[in-house]
Structure formats: structure tokens, C-alpha cells
């Protein structure tokens, strides 16, 4: 079942003794992962840089649709920005449900995909009423015409305080994050018109309240203050670590 939508890939319910697998760590593996697997070791087509392995991590070449592990061998599995690339999402997700008791799936949201679309992304994804829907891009004639990935993923997070605040006050605006236990509900290539309407045509203003509920002024002030505090802590840590 779905547990919640974490605010970031570091906002996870992982115990200190949990054994953690990461599927598709690529150039940016999670520091909490004990074992990291990747399918493509000789090509960066599906990632933004060469494979990186952190100290203490075990790396294995493996296909996420056919993981070489026993049932429930891991306590937790992390999978960030990978599901949108895979050929068979049903098999891919069922393998994660098989090898781990709990986990995190992170993908671009609809807005995220339109802002930094990649040719290697096969699927458009949207969460609605706790169900994750995946639609093959070819079925809605989605094409990559203008790529702002470097601006949205690299430049603005480093150089714009305003953008950093938005990332924290609206953490699931450009990204879908689902923390789950045992499994969660998903549908591949839905046929329901009430779902397909989100994937083509024009976004309706009335949908915004459902997916991005309005906040009171106090909630806005509280969330903004919390975001500023978190940014300050991160800047302090980065400067201390750089000096060290």
C-alpha cells in the first residue's frame, strides 16, 4: 500500500539497520544505499553522467526487470528517476515489490516532464487519488521539442533562492514520490477518459485545487520559513564540508 508522498528522496522511513537496495543509482546514488544496481554501465543515454559508487556501497550490473535477489532480501528499495525509462513497468515494479518490504519510487510529474523532457523517457506519469498512472508517450503524441533540463535541474537549484523555496514549499510539483509498503496501486496505459484527460489537451485551472490545495496565509508563512531554514542549514553544511 502507499504510505505517503515524501518531501524529498532524503525524507524516507529507513531504519538504521535496514538493508537498502537502489535500482538505477546511476551518477547520483543515494548515500543510504547498501547495494546499487544499474542496467547500462557503458552508456549515459539514460542518465546525466558516469556511474558513481559511494564508499561502502556494493555495485552490481543488473536489470531492474529481472533482479538477481531473493524474495524480501532487502528491507527497503530506492528507485529515483528510473521508472519513466523502462520498457516493461509492470515487471519492473513487481520485481521491486518482490525483493523488498518497503520502498520509494520517484519520477517526474506531468509538469516536470514537460519542463525537462528527455528522449529516453518512455512514459508520462501522473498520480491521482493514490493511483500512479503511466501513459506511453507515443499514445498521446508527446514529442521533445524544447529541453530546459539544465536550467530547471542544474542552474536554478544552485543559483536561485526563490526556486529553492518553491522546491521545498511544493515538493511534489515537478516530481512524484511514493513511499510504499508491500506494493502500491498503478495502471499502465489507462483507458478511462477521466484519467486520460490529464495527459493531453490543456490543463484546467479547476484541477489545481485538487492536486495543489490552497493554503492559508499562516501555512504559507510557516512553509516559507521552514524552507528558508532548510536552505540555510544546507548552505552551512556545504561550506563546512568544503572547508573540511
Automatic annotation (TrEMBL):
* Domain of life assignment: Bacteria
Location of the Methyltransferase type domain: 53-103
Give any Pfam family that matches. Answer: Methyltransf_11
UniProt-recorded name of the protein = Methyltransferase type 11 domain-containing protein
Origin species, per record, is: Nibrella saemangeumensis
Amino acid at each position: 500500500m502507499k504510505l505517503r508522498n515524501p518531501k524529498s528522496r532524503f525524507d524516507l522511513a529507513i531504519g538504521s539497520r535496514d538493508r537498502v537496495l537502489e535500482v538505477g543509482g546511476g551518477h547520483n546514488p543515494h548515500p543510504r544505499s547498501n547495494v546499487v544496481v544499474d542496467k547500462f554501465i557503458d552508456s549515459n543515454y539514460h542518465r546525466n553522467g558516469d556511474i558513481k559508487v559511494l564508499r561502502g556501497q556494493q555495485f552490481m550490473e543488473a536489470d531492474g526487470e529481472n533482479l538477481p535477489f531473493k524474495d524480501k532480501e532487502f528491507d527497503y528499495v530506492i528507485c529515483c528517476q528510473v521508472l519513466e525509462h523502462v520498457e516493461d513497468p509492470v515487471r519492473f515494479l513487481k520485481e521491486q515489490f518482490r525483493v523488498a518490504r518497503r520502498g520509494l519510487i520517484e519520477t517526474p510529474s506531468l509538469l516536470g516532464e514537460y519542463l525537462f523532457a528527455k528522449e529516453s523517457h518512455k512514459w508520462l506519469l501522473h498520480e491521482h487519488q493514490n493511483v500512479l498512472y503511466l501513459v506511453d508517450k507515443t499514445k498521446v503524441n508527446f514529442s521533445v521539442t524544447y529541453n530546459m533540463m539544465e536550467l530547471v535541474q542544474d542552474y536554478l537549484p544552485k543559483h536561485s533562492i526563490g526556486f529553492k523555496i518553491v522546491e521545498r514549499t511544493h515538493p511534489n510539483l515537478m516530481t512524484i514520490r511514493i513511499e510504499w509498503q508491500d506494493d502500491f496501486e498503478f495502471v499502465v496505459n489507462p483507458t478511462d477518459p477521466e484519467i486520460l484527460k490529464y495527459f493531453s489537451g490543456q490543463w484546467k485551472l479547476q484541477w489545481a485545487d485538487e492536486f495543489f490545495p490552497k493554503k492559508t496565509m499562516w501555512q504559507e508563512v510557516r512553509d516559507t520559513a521552514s524552507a528558508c531554514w532548510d536552505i540555510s542549514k544546507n548552505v552551512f553544511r556545504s561550506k563546512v564540508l568544503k572547508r573540511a
